[in-house]
Amino acid sequence: MVRYGHFDDRTREYVIDRPDTPLPWINYLGSEAYFGLISNTAGGYSFYRDARLRRLTRYRYNNAPLDLGGRYLYLRDDANGDYWSPSWQPTQRELDDYECRHGLSYTRIASARGGIRAETLYFVPLGETLEVWRTRVTNERDTTAELSLFSSVEFCLWDAQDDATNFQRNFSTGQVEVDDGVIYHKTEYRERRDHFAYFACSEPLAGFDTQREAFLGAYRGWDRPAAVEQGSATDSVAAGWSPIGSHHVRLSLAPGETREVIFVLGYAENPRDDKFDPPHSQTINKSRVRPTIARWLDSATVTEGFTALTTHWDRLLGGLQVSTPDADTDRMVNVWNAYQCMVTFNLSRSASQFESGIGRGMGFRDSNQDLLGFVHIIPERARERILDIAATQMATGGAYHQYQPLTKRGNNDIGDGFNDDPLWLILGVSAYLKETGEATILDEPVPFDNAPGSEVSLYEHLVRSLSYTLDRLGPHGLPLIGRADWNDCLNLNCFSETPGEPFQTTENVTGGQAESVFIAGQFVLAAKELASVAELRGLDEKAAEYRAAAEKMTGTIVEHGWDGEWFRRAYDFHGNPIGSGENDEGQIFVEPQGMCVLAGVGLDDGLAARALDSVGDRLGTPHGVVLQQPAYSRYHVELGEISTYPPGYKENAGIFCHTNPWIMIAETILGRGDRAFDYYRRINPSAREAISDVHRCEPYVYAQMIAGKDAPTHGEAKNSWLTGTAAWNFVAITQWILGLRPELDGLRVDPVLPAAWNGFVATRVYRGATYEITVRKPIGVSGRVTRLLVDGAQIDGTVIPPAPAGATVRVEAVVER
After folding, report:
1. Which CATH class is domain 5-314?
2. Domain boundary assignment for the chain
3. Beta strands 808-814; 769-776: pairing state
4. What's 740-814's CATH class?
5. pLDDT of 380-408, one tens digit each?
6. What's this model's pTM, rounded to 2 decimal places?
7. What is the set of active-site residues?
């Protein structure tokens, strides 16, 4: 087995010690409005708020090499003409040594060649709309070194979709201005010039380039730029074609000398009332950004900014820290899983190595689930996100499936019809209430479809979310699936012209009769949560109504959704069961087994245990739980996209990691800690680090999918970083296996641990108080808490009432049998 790096738990970094990782192993810069992707070889791109509409730099997906385009530096030995990239890419010249350290919102890449060492720190300062590259070049030779350092970025013409397709226009619109060594990218997007980018350098320039062809040379790529090869920039000023930014700095270094060069890439806007913003103006207000540029080109400012960033992450991660008998659990809970939850919160599914940032925006379902993983870290931003999400909801209770983060408007081309979407809002808001106890959010006026004058309370939005399901029940009394439920690729409203005849069309009828057992289980869970919220507001009659609806749906699931040994998945357009022993393929699906047990269906009659046993027997693999079995071997038009994938990939029997935590949680509900933790470790990235040549994706963050047992590459991960897997795994391990679970009336301590553990300790900040928790358990025991002591006094049950903000509460939980 091959490793490409290691965890540095002390510095909270993942250290990559060879550049040729199986896939680009990336990190994210920024945590507020300005973001960037950066790979271990400095690939990636930057944007402001919206990866499509405010893209600063260009990146070409599905390229060869796969990771091409980024924040590239070139070093040239002016004595002999040798040149290389300190990040290895794009020149791929051999390096004497190489190290990339991905940290929390920063990346540091260091290397050496021919006695010249270079180290670059990349980060986005808090509160700024810019990124800093701090490069330190050291001469480790015995003689003076005469060097050239070149920077390079390729500017995107703002709308990444238009930039990648509208060449007849774009090759005539590129505009760049160079003033006092600062490169300003001022290409307008259509006729509105209210934003621009800038690229600055701290050192006096020997030259610059802003026209791509002048820098690279005709018929050349980024691996051998003509300007670098010749050792001289051309001072080109872009007019149309492809604008770039490149600085040329000459360095003369004595033996042992280190020089620091700082580059700043940033985004700025002209206020609408600015005198520099008349229609069709060719002027940008450079005076507004000059003080910012000067400040961040100063070494002391950069040092202070980086210190502030690390302090910021100390505070964010300090809200939950654990020490368990398992090192992989500790590093994921304490650092990497929490960090991934924050990145996923910021970006939903919009921009990764597998999402171009063009098509998706923010997901309604996705963002509500992401709340579960970060609400304890930044509850104030969770509140803001909830209100943003709810404002895209429709008056029917339905929801746009996705919305653009810049405009906060729903995407009309991916609108209503994913019938699980509205219920996730209830679960997201409930998580916020449990964490914060701040119920005033329920009274916030929130519009429908962002339409002025349509405001109702957030609580009314939740009520309509539940009603949306009740208003759309199918022939069996189960919820209609619409275009799809959680699984976007399960499209069951495809039909034939004549029932019973071969399917002739792939038309998707969102108002069709196909029903979802998964949504039924989700509805039971959401109705129970809304009942608790109603009680919080003193609406006892409504609470009883919602619980009655949950009970009725539970009965419907048992009657029409139980297949004998597991829960069925759905019914198709013609009323045929899906996920049933009656089917030749796709007989059992994982989603309803997890969601129904989470909702409490089948706990009293043994159905839950039988369903989870079936999951272990039929869906479990060493690399995780697959989505369904048997895999679909051919295209089924009545099932839609799910059957278009080859067996073992994505939704066709792949290990869709998002669903695995539902099974972990379900196992803890049954008290089966060994099973829950076993499932947790199977997909834990840190635990898979030793098989990085098989896993291929980053060993420090979860991937969306791992190839299933039907695939020739079983165990290979894809679609890392931006996935609901991050939030749900964090919930599974912290709230259910470790059992530190916020409730409306306090913090529950109810661990369900593997028998081999003897307990754990944790620090949990909850509603402003700090809980120092020790769990003790004899090795070999797999039981629940038998005694709970709070500040030395035993209490009844496992829920600790909230302590005053600022208090420190000492908790001892004992498992004796």
Report:
1. mainly beta
2. 5-314, 357-369+380-471, 740-814
3. parallel
4. mainly beta
5. 999 999 999 999 999 999 998 888 777 77
6. 0.95
7. 488
